[in-house]
Design a protein that fits this description.
The chain is an alpha+beta fold and about 400 residues long. The chain has helices at about 20-30, 50-55, 75-80, 95-100, 105-110, 115-130, 135-140, 145-150, 160-170, 175-180, 185-205, 210-220, 230-260, 260-270, 275-285, 315-320, 355-370, and strands spanning about 30-35, 45, 60-65, 135, 220, 225, 290-295, 300, 305, 310-315, 375, 380-385, 390-395, 395-400. The longest helix is centred in the middle third of the chain and has 32 residues, at about 230-260. The protein binds protoporphyrin IX containing FE.
Length: about 400
């Protein structure tokens, strides 16, 4: 592949999976690459581990707030509503907000989850175990993160699949199956999620419960509480951030185990490897392909000028295969240690749900390998058409049916 042919704004480049060949060329030949085709005014792309690390840890120069974190141009109204999402905030506002919502992820909330997660996981597997086949994405991988997040947020059971559809539409806007390929569908879904959050908050204010929503509504830092709009935005962010990422790591992790039978056998022999296997899956899949930072003033990266207001994209999936950082980066190794991948980002915006996600993925694979150890592909997986989320939409699998 030639440098001149690379356009990271084109979802078709990602149709068959993360473009590792293009990333390799970029890391080698143009570690700071000007992608001229990306929206109104192009963007810089960083693909090496160290450079992504450096930019992420310098929020004074590289802002999340100025132009948001994805490659979209917003009108004024969208910019105002996106500014209330913590991912699009800079310090000191972000620091304060993060301290508030951290209370919703306290050990009190998350500690009691492991047992419940295992129950949910086994219920999901119960539904398919005797069939000997299923769509691994919709029947298995998508269900756990969805059920965990709606359970944490106290969403009533009957509303849960509606929430799932909205979240799919919002994030998969480049894919016809989810968003009709339209930005409008994504916006409409976001508006519905906001409205839903508003009703949920009203209900919890009227009748507080022992769940994350009540904790968030009550949380107070330095005399400040989450405003109504802050709460709605956080609800929306959690849905999207918690669902798509974890789902795609579970699907991609399963695919990796199918494609690397020796690694699956290793895991079956030695369950103490589950924790390292989980991080290796996140590194391998890197479901969040990129996030954006914007230069706050004229500056330099790798000795090249970067102008104020220019966007810099951080390609996590490339950093996670950087041969200068990882030994044998293209090998899927369930025992990899150390594994300081950037799949959860780095710096002040480091993924708030990383421990929750790790727990979900570990429990899912512990139960899957215990009950259905021989899952294999029944047909090739269908991928999500997106340069933002690395995802599998459908993955038909078969396995020896479980005898009850
Ligand atoms: C394997 C699953 C997941 C992956 C790969 C992932 C990845 C990421 C990444 C790359 C970031 C941005 C980090 C940065 O800019 O430095 C992030 C932020 C975030 N993630 Fe996750 N995530 C996952 C699961 C979750 C879950 C389960 C939740 C919550 C239920 C969650 C909530 C968040 C939130 C709230 C932020 C914004 C943090 C901030 O702006 O301070 N994520 N995640």
């Amino acid at each position: 592949m030639r440098l001149a042919d690379i356009d990271l704004s084109n979802p078709d480049l990602f149709a068959a999976g993360p473009p590792h060949e293009a990333f390799r060329v970029l890391r080698r030949e143009a570690p700071l690459f000007w992608n001229g085709n990306g929206g109104s005014d192009g963007f810089w792309a960083l693909t090496r581990y160290r450079d992504i690390w450096n930019v992420s840890l310098d929020p004074k120069t590289f802002s999340n707030a100025r132009r948001g974190t994805i490659l979209r141009d917003w009108n004024e109204e969208e910019a105002a509503s996106n500014a209330t999402i913590m991912l699009n905030m800079d310090p000191p506002r972000h620091t304060k907000y993060r301290r508030l919502v951290n209370l919703g992820f306290s050990p009190k909330i998350t500690n009691r989850l492991e047992h419940r997660m295992r129950e949910i996981t086994n219920r999901i597997i119960d539904k398919i175990a005797a069939r000997g086949e299923c769509d691994f994405v919709t029947d298995v991988a998508a269900e756990l993160p969805l059920q965990v997040i709606v359970e944490m947020m106290g969403v009533p059971t009957e509303d849960r699949h509606q929430i799932f559809d909205w979240s799919n539409t919002m994030i998969g806007f480049d894919d016809p199956e989810y968003g009709n390929g339209s930005n409008e569908a994504g916006k409409a879904a976001a508006a519905q999620i906001y409205m839903y959050a508003h009703e949920l908050a009203t209900e919890h204010r009227r009748c507080p419960r022992d769940d994350m929503v009540s904790v968030l509504l009550e949380a107070e830092v330095e005399g400040e509480k989450l405003s109504e709009i802050d709460f709605n935005s956080f609800f929306l962010l959690l849905l999207v951030a918690g669902n798509e990422t974890t789902r795609n790591t579970i699907s991609g992790g399963m695919l990796a185990l199918i494609e690397h039978p020796e690694e699956r056998a290793r895991l079956l022999r030695d369950p103490s490897l589950f924790p390292t296997a989980v991080d290796e899956m996140v590194r391998w899949v890197s479901p969040v392909m990129y996030f954006v930072r914007t230069a706050m003033h004229d500056t330099e990266i790798l000795g090249q000028p970067v102008r104020e207001n220019q966007r810099v994209t951080l390609w996590y999936g490339s950093a996670n295969r950087d041969e200068e950082h990882f030994a044998d980066p293209d090998r899927f190794d369930v025992g990899r240690h150390p594994n300081d991948h950037l799949g959860f980002g780095i710096g002040p915006h480091f993924c708030l749900g990383s421990n929750l996600a790790r727990l979900e993925i570990r429990i899912m694979f512990e139960e899957l390998l215990r009950r259905l150890p021989d899952i294999e592909l029944a047909a090739p997986p269908t991928r999500l058409r997106s340069n933002f989320i690395g995802g599998v939409k459908h993955m038909p699998v078969r396995f020896t049916p479980e005898r009850r």
